[in-house]
Write a structure and sequence with these properties.
Elements: E1 9-14, E2 17-22, E3 25-30, H1 33-47, E4 53-56, E5 62-65, E6 71-75
Parallel strand pairs: 1-4
Antiparallel strand pairs: 1-2, 2-3, 4-5, 5-6
Amino acid sequence: MERPAYEDMVIEDTRNGCTVSCEGKYLGTHANFDLAFTAGCAWMEAHGYYPDVYHVNDHGNVDLLDDEGNVVEGWV
């Protein structure tokens, strides 16, 4: 059984940097992807919860990331 998408972590490019959300909750905005990914990883570690992590770039493309921030699979 698949988890609903709202349980995943999403890092999204915005005009002001990158926003991070998980379980449908806004976690913060960061200056760039690396800072956003690091903050998301820290949140997961603090909560002992390790959902799938997706990056939505400024063109709307979606990438599934591994635990080091590398693209596992992408959708255009």
